[in-house]
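Researcher: Sequence recovery benchmark, item below. Answer with residues only.
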Protein backbone atom coordinates (compact mmCIF):
# COMPACT_ATOMS: atom_id res chain seq x y z
CA UNK A 1 0.00 0.00 0.00
CA UNK A 2 1.42 3.39 -0.95
CA UNK A 3 1.15 6.38 1.33
CA UNK A 4 -0.47 9.46 -0.20
CA UNK A 5 1.16 12.83 0.23
CA UNK A 6 -0.93 15.30 2.17
CA UNK A 7 -2.12 18.38 0.31
CA UNK A 8 -1.22 20.62 3.26
CA UNK A 9 1.83 20.96 5.49
CA UNK A 10 1.45 22.09 9.11
CA UNK A 11 3.59 24.76 10.71
CA UNK A 12 5.25 23.49 13.89
CA UNK A 13 5.17 27.00 15.38
CA UNK A 14 1.59 28.20 14.80
CA UNK A 15 -0.15 25.01 13.51
CA UNK A 16 -1.38 26.78 10.36
CA UNK A 17 -2.10 24.43 7.48
CA UNK A 18 -0.24 25.63 4.41
CA UNK A 19 -1.03 24.28 0.93
CA UNK A 20 1.90 22.08 -0.13
CA UNK A 21 2.51 24.09 -3.32
CA UNK A 22 2.70 27.38 -1.38
CA UNK A 23 4.97 25.81 1.25
CA UNK A 24 7.34 24.40 -1.37
CA UNK A 25 7.52 27.69 -3.31
CA UNK A 26 7.90 30.02 -0.32
CA UNK A 27 9.76 27.65 1.99
CA UNK A 28 8.05 29.16 5.00
CA UNK A 29 4.71 29.58 6.75
CA UNK A 30 2.82 32.61 5.39
CA UNK A 31 1.10 32.96 8.78
CA UNK A 32 4.15 33.31 11.08
CA UNK A 33 7.22 33.04 8.83
CA UNK A 34 8.56 29.83 10.37
CA UNK A 35 10.48 27.42 8.15
CA UNK A 36 9.50 24.43 10.33
CA UNK A 37 6.78 22.74 8.25
CA UNK A 38 5.76 19.09 8.50
CA UNK A 39 3.51 16.54 6.83
CA UNK A 40 3.07 14.90 10.24
CA UNK A 41 -0.27 16.31 11.42
CA UNK A 42 -3.80 15.09 12.18
CA UNK A 43 -7.21 16.74 12.27
CA UNK A 44 -8.12 20.23 11.15
CA UNK A 45 -9.99 23.26 12.45
CA UNK A 46 -11.16 25.91 10.00
CA UNK A 47 -11.94 29.36 11.43
CA UNK A 48 -13.99 31.47 9.03
CA UNK A 49 -14.37 34.72 10.97
CA UNK A 50 -12.69 36.52 13.86
CA UNK A 51 -15.90 36.48 15.89
CA UNK A 52 -15.71 32.69 16.19
CA UNK A 53 -16.08 31.36 19.74
CA UNK A 54 -12.88 29.31 19.29
CA UNK A 55 -10.61 32.28 18.50
CA UNK A 56 -8.65 33.03 21.65
CA UNK A 57 -9.84 29.93 23.54
CA UNK A 58 -7.11 27.74 22.08
CA UNK A 59 -3.70 29.41 22.24
CA UNK A 60 -2.87 28.81 18.59
CA UNK A 61 -6.17 30.09 17.16
CA UNK A 62 -5.55 33.80 16.82
CA UNK A 63 -7.17 34.61 13.47
CA UNK A 64 -9.23 33.00 10.69
CA UNK A 65 -7.57 30.20 8.72
CA UNK A 66 -6.90 26.44 8.63
CA UNK A 67 -5.13 24.90 11.61
CA UNK A 68 -3.97 21.40 12.51
CA UNK A 69 -5.31 19.87 15.73
CA UNK A 70 -2.21 17.73 16.37
CA UNK A 71 1.25 18.40 14.96
CA UNK A 72 4.35 16.24 15.38
CA UNK A 73 7.94 16.76 14.25
CA UNK A 74 9.66 14.50 11.77
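Model:
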Amino acid sequence: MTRRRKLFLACLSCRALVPRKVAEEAGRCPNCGSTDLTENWEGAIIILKEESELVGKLEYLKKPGRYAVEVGGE
